[in-house]
Amino acid sequence: MSSIDLKEPESYRLFFLLSDMLGKKGSHLMNQADKIETIRLTGGQRAVLKPAKSWRQGEVALLLHRIRSPGLPRCLGISGLDDRPDFRDLPLVFLESPAGENQILIEYLEGVSLRDYPQEQVTPDRLLAWFNQVLEALAWIMQISGRPFVHSDISPENIIIGPQDQACLIDFSDSLLMENGMDMVDYPLFGKEGYSAPELYQGTISPASDLYSLAMSFLSVLACQPASQLDPKSQDKWLRKLGHPLRDHLATCLKQAPQARLEGIRGTPYAQLVEDLMRRPRRPDPSPDLMAG
Q: Of 80, 163, 174, 199, which residue has the fewest beta carbons closer than 10 angstroms?
């Protein structure tokens, strides 16, 4: 066993890995350039640590472990036994931390955030391709899970552009798998100022909330300004600089009414899945007799 004692931000020691995929040993690495903590696993693979208690739904982590997509990171496992049912099926990776918290290991994606992408290389054609790639990743989650899905925290910082110009979403700890037949659910306000859809300020959220956040992310990058500083007049100014179809996509996704946002991307697998899943009957709640055992 080998370990490297790190003084900041927190020290972990990798004991052993029960997953054959992850190997038997590893050592810790602090990547200062990326300003995130990662561990390097046997074979050179790197993983990002996310506290298990910070995940709103454990089944999202399990889903990221089971599916494959170039636009999504893979969940590699959990650092210890956990009472939450969806975490029990994850590969076990034993880590010790001073806080004693279980950690979810997420695949580290090489690349640069959309926020830090060289401005001179951000073109309308690239933005359109990245927009479609993010929608494809979200659609794939719904296709595999069979349920409406909300990332809930899309921003330029949470979109990574990889070496092959592939846009990838990261940070799924506040994501939500909704029940079929629901077009909106109660949700405490979360997200980054300026990127959160209007309905979140009324305490509700839907898959269409991600469309608003995605459109604001792209406008923010074009304007080189935080979304919180883009008022409607500024938004119109930057939209007019774009050509069809990107301008139409972004303008429609910024509409106040969630359902109206789907009109701008009608015909895409994402829009079709959202509408189909919201029309499906909800699963019946267990009867009191069944719940009693």
A: 163
User: How far is 137 from 152, CA to CA, in rounded Å?
Assistant: 14
Distance CA 169, CA 162 (A): 11
Q: What is the pTM of this model?
A: 0.82
Distance from C-alpha of 134 to C-alpha of 72, rounded to nearest angstrom? 9
For the chain, give the number of residues: 293
* The listed CATH number (1.10.1670.10, 3.30.450.80, 2.160.10.10, 1.10.510.10) that belongs to domain 112-279: 1.10.510.10
Residue 207's alpha-carbon distances to 59, 61, 160, 178, 180, in angstroms, are 17, 18, 20, 9, 12
Contacts of 146 (CB under 8 A, 6+ apart): 180, 277
Spell out the domain ranges in the chain: 13-107, 112-279
For residue range 201-235, list pLDDT tens digits in order: 888 889 999 999 999 999 999 999 999 999 999 99
Distance CA 257, CA 255 (A): 6
Apex CA 213: angle with CA 161 and CA 176, to 5°?
A: 95
Of 103, 118, 111, 117, nearest in space to 37 by CA: 103
Pairing between β-strand 103-107 and β-strand 46-51 as defined by DSSP bridges = antiparallel
The confidence score (pLDDT) of residue 181 equals 59
